Every structure is written in C-alpha cells, then in structure tokens.
Amino acid sequence: MAAVDIVGVRKAFGATEVIHGVDIAIADGQFVVLVGPSGCGKSTLLRMLAGLESITDGTISIDGKVVNLVPPKERDIAMVFQNYALYPHMSVFDNMGFSLKLRGAPKAEIDRRVKEAAAILDLDRLLERFPRQLSGGQRQRVAMGRAIVRDPKVFLFDEPLSNLDAKLRVAMRTEIRALHQRLRSTTVYVTHDQIEAMTMADKIVVMHDGRVEQIGEPLELYDRPDNLFVAGFIGSPAMNFLPGRIEAGAGPRFVSDGGVSLPLVAPPGGVGSGIDGRPVVLGVRPEHLHLADEGAAAEVLVVEPTGSEIQVFTKLGGADVMAVFRERHRFRPGDRIRVAPLPGQIHLFDAESGRRLVP
Amino acid sequence: MTDATPQRATEPGVARDGPARRGRGGDEGEGMDYLVSLPRRVVTVYLPLLVFLFVLLFPFYWMVITTFKSNEELYDFKDFSPFWVVHPTLHNLHKLFFETHYPIWLWNTMVVSVVATFLSLFCAVCAGYAIERLRFKGSRLVGMAIFLAYLVPPSILFIPLSTMVFSYGLFDSKFALILTYPTFLIPFCTWLLMGYFRSIPYELEECALIDGATRLQILVKIILPLAVPGLISAGIFAFTLSWNEFIYALTFISSTTNKTVPVGVVTELVEGDVYHWGSLMAGALMGSLPVAVLYSFFVEYYVSSMTGAVKE
Ligand SMILES: Nc1ncnc2c1ncn2[C@@H]1O[C@H](COP(=O)(O)OP(=O)(O)OP(=O)(O)O)[C@@H](O)[C@H]1O
Ligand SMILES: [Mg+2]
C-alpha cells in the first residue's frame, strides 16, 4: 500500500504531446477512477504509472519515492489489462503464480497465496483450466487474481470491464469494489464509462484532451461541476444546456437565446454585477426539471418510459431539452408542457471559458 | 433450431440448379452453396484436386517403381509396361547401400541439416524477436536488409563464400556446410518468425514485464512457448532446404565420404554417361523419406502457423 503522487506529468509521442501537465495526488488506500472520453490519455497515464511508457516531463512517485526511471518490475504494482492478457499456454494456477515464481518464492508459499486469492475470487475449481477454457467473466477474475496474489503497493486497472456484457459488468463492478474494501490497497482504475466512475470511485479524475478537468468525490462532481465539460460528462442522462444571457433587474433572470426566461432564485451572494448581459450557459439536469405552471413552455417530442421513470425529450425555446419524471405522466408527442428547474438546481457557466460561475 | 438457417442459405442453389438439385433435397448446404451440388463439386473441387494429386505424386510413383525394377525391365519398353513392375528386385537398393557410401551420405546430410537448422533457428529467434519487439532505431531497415539478403541467389553467393571457406580451412568438412547453410536459412527463418512474433499480443509481454520478468525470461517463458507452431514450421523449412541443398554441397565438398545425399547420388551413381537409374531412384526415394516423415508428424502445427495466429 502506498500513496501515489503525479506532479506536472507530460507525455509526448515524438512531436505530439498527448498529456499536457497532469497533477493528481492519490492517498494511501484510495480508489481513484480516471475517466474521460476515448483518446484523452487515460491509458497513457496509467501506463506511465506502470512504467510501460517513459515520462517526458514531471514526476511520478510511489510511496514517496520518485519512480520515473524505475523499471516496471521494481515498482511493485499490478496491472489488469483490458483484454486480461492471460498467458494462453499456462493454467490458471500458473498464470496466478507466475510473478511469485519469477521472484523465486518457495513452492509452498506460491501454492498458499494462489489458493488464497482463488478462494477470494471463487476460482478454486478452475485452477487447472487454461484461459481458453474460461468464460469472459472468469478470465476477468483470473486477471484480478493474478494481481491480488502479488499483494502489490498499487493496483492499476485499464478498462477491465469493457469486454463484458452489461449484466456481468454490473456484477464485476460490485465485486471489484468489495475486493477493494477488503484489501484496502491503493487503486487507479481507468474507464470511459462515467457510471462506473460514479459507482466505484472514492475520487474521480475527469480527463479531457490530456488535461485534468476536475478532481473530486463522485457527488461533488455531480453537484458542482467545475466546467461545461465535466457538467456534460458526469451524470446520465446528460445535463441540458441553454445558452443565453443574464439580465439583472428587479430579480435577476436568465434569458436564453431562444427567448426562454427563467428567474434566478437562489444565489444570496447575488450574481456578480459584472455578469449582467454577459453570455452564459445555463445547465440543468433532466432529473431537476419539474412541471410548474410558472415554468417555460416546452413541446414534447419523444416519450421514453423506462419503468422506474419516464424520459421526455422536448423542444424548449429552440433548444433540445430532456426531462426525467418519476411520476407517470401520460404525455404524447406534440403536447405542450410547462417545466421549470427545481430551486437551487441550476448551474451557470461562462459561455466563453466554460468555467463555472456562481453559485 | 439450427435447421431453418442452413435451409434458407441453400435457397439460391435450389433456384440455380433446378430440378436436379431439388431431387436430392436431403442434402444440407453449409454456406458455400456453389459447392453444394454433386456435379458442381466434381468440377470445382474433386477434378482439380485429382489433377493436382497426379502431378504431385507421379514422380514419386516413378521413383518407387524404378527402384524395384531390374535393368532388363527398365530398358525394355516393348515387353514390359513402363508403368508397372513385373519382377520386383532389391538389387538396386542392395547396390545403393552396400556398394556405395550411401549410408554415410545419409548420416552426413542428417548431421549437417540438423545442426544447421538449430543454429539458424537460434539466430532467427534472437534476430526476429529483436527486430519485432525491441523497437530499436532502424529495426525496420534491418528487417528489410535481412530479407534482401535472402533474395541473393546461392549461385552467385557460392563464389565469395568458397573463398571464405578456403581461407578458414573448412573446405571438404561438414563445417563448410553447417556454417554456409545459415546464410540462406537465417533470413528465411527470421522472416517467418517475425510474422509469427507479431501475432503474439504485445500486452502479454507488458504483463510479464510488470510481473517481474526480464527480457530473456519473457522470450523463453512467454514468447517461445507461444511460437512453437512457428518454430516448428521454420524448423521444417530449414531442415528441408538444407536436406536438399545442392550447390554449396557440390562446391565445398570433394571427398566421397563427406558428401551429402543430393550430391553423392548424382556424382557417384552417374559414371561418365552411364546412369544407374535404379540406384539413382532408390537413392532419391530413400533420401526423401525422412523429410516426408517429418512433415507428416508436424503437418498440423505447420498449417496452423501458416494460417493462424495465437488465440487467447
Ligand atoms: N504509441 C503511441 N504513439 C503515438 N500516439 C499515441 C501512442 N499511444 C497513444 N497515443 C495517442 O495518445 C492519445 C491518448 O491515448 P490513450 O490510449 O491514452 O487514450 P485513452 O484515454 O486510453 O482512450 P481509450 O478510452 O480509447 O482507451 C491518443 O490520441 C493516441 O492517439
Ligand atoms: Mg485506453
């Protein structure tokens, strides 16, 4: 177990820089999820942590020791790959015991530790099998077993669940989480699935184009996204955005480009005076819209019931807006409804920089 | 449950072949429906196969019957059919094994081929792995250069090589062949193995690297076990090439007891303009048997390495 510190890390392949200075502090025993769209550099960062890629600039330290030039085998880390990377010519037992064998551990100890890990992961009866004789979920568990057996300082996962079907993915999610609660080892987990990030993480790092957009606890990111990117990335269905302006007056109002006008209720500190007339983007989550007589008029386009809720796609002042209701309203396409955000549940972003404004 | 789909798949076949096809309605097609009906199958599959087999096997047949023919029978087309043996005899084999140095030639060929093959495989594994996986500067270039080396024909190369063989004092010894065969075996095996190494997922190596393996351990414990089919086919190829090699063996060896089978047979069983056809053919037959046996043992590996990659 160890803390991991990533300071000012950059990575360039040839002339193209793909990671532009990343700082992340990971406390001992924390479960950190790196999340972001495809190609944002998550895998590259993880591979630098593992020692599989060189570090162009900045430092990575594990347990207080800078490991920039330390080869992977001496970093005491374990990594679970997306395609599991099980050795096809070795049995499950040998796969799990390989690293110990390389280290020259006595046979009895290898046997004991592999059996222990197998018991944790429910692999006891599969130890003699070869990877090709296992199902996807079982392979996944063997890959994790291989990591557990080593009892490393840090666990690294690179999209370990993306090859599994939806149901198994949910089950494995819980399993990995339970495993972490049991082993309490520092974990860095890469995914592009924000639900996976929300459900598993102690701390989420949202990455975009080789930069860190925001670091925080899952609900913090959900409640107070720092910028438009995080706001749109975290949460499902995604947040609605309405571009517009703020008009200070008797009570400050938001007026969208499409003419929708909403009162800005909450901010007691007041919307700063400089903000008057400035172009902003108002964000509101679908689940924070409710039916209200004083709300803005929207036209229902599509209604999708999921059972627990209904998702309603609407046109609100020229913008596409989605609303989610837990009540079973019987809307039809073409209906006109009036919706308004719940008080205090709106987000304002600067239209130019994408930064969060108050509140 | 699967019944419905294959039936549907054969529908176009039914339409094209008309009543004839309909008559044998029980036949199940499996996708390649142009091969389905019997007449079609005969034309597209069996006939070409037969022609191919004939072309391939007839020389062997000729070799076998000539081996067991007496000279009278061999030279008399009028009284004896050239395609059949009437009075089989072991005379030719006896002459080959007891009146020439054939057993020694076999032994020489075996030693030279086996040693040259292993030597070449060892070098090819190192070279192929380094070029494919170590990503050093200019690795592509080296790969190309090795391939180009393979393209230089032995009939040109044997002249400079003979100078070298002479100056090392290797002339007329097995080492002359053992050390020159790799000049064409290594490039060939390297290329074959490079393709095979490329099919092994990179992640396996990275995983082993994290597990604490050194490069050498990765090569020995991960790559080589997975490349066994590739090694076997490269080995078979190398073995066959050295077994049949002629030019170097002819140039670098002079004494009878150091010759290999291909050279010994044509130099010792042709005296002036007298061809000892029976023994020649016997020599060729006996010489091709070991290779044939080798192939038949490993044919499965060999095919899989030509067609497939590593599957997890
Ligand atoms: N070896 C390489 N050489 C050059 N560019 C690379 C290399 N590896 C990755 N890149 C580039 O670096 C960027 C980040 O890649 P990376 O694999 O880290 O993305 P990712 O966030 O893991 O995406 P995904 O979710 O699709 O796995 C990409 O633009 C990619 O093209
Ligand atoms: Mg990735």
UniProtKB/TrEMBL annotation, chain A:
Nucleotidyltransferase among keywords: no
GO cellular component: ATP-binding cassette (ABC) transporter complex, substrate-binding subunit-containing
Record's keyword terms, sorted: ATP-binding, Nucleotide-binding, Transport
Gene3D superfamilies (alphabetical): 2.40.50.100, Nucleic acid-binding proteins, P-loop containing nucleotide triphosphate hydrolases
Organism, scientific name: Tistlia consotensis USBA 355
Record domain ABC transporter: where: 4-234
CDD domains from the UniProt entry: ABC_MalK_N
Biological process (GO), any one: carbohydrate transport
GO molecular function, one term: ABC-type transporter activity
Keyword Nucleotide-binding: yes
Protein's UniProt name: Carbohydrate ABC transporter ATP-binding protein, CUT1 family
A Pfam family hit: ABC_tran
Family: Belongs to the ABC transporter superfamily.
TrEMBL record, chain B:
GO cellular component: plasma membrane
InterPro entries: BP-dep_ABC_trans_perm (IPR050901), MetI-like (IPR000515), MetI-like_sf (IPR035906)
Biological process, per Gene Ontology: transmembrane transport
CDD domains reported in the protein's UniProt record: TM_PBP2
Assigned keywords, A-Z: Cell membrane, Membrane, Transmembrane, Transmembrane helix, Transport
Transmembrane segments: 42-64, 104-129, 141-169, 175-197, 218-241, 280-303
Name this polypeptide is given: Carbohydrate ABC transporter membrane protein 2, CUT1 family
The organism of origin for this protein: Tistlia consotensis USBA 355
Taxonomic lineage from the root: Bacteria, Pseudomonadati, Pseudomonadota, Alphaproteobacteria, Rhodospirillales
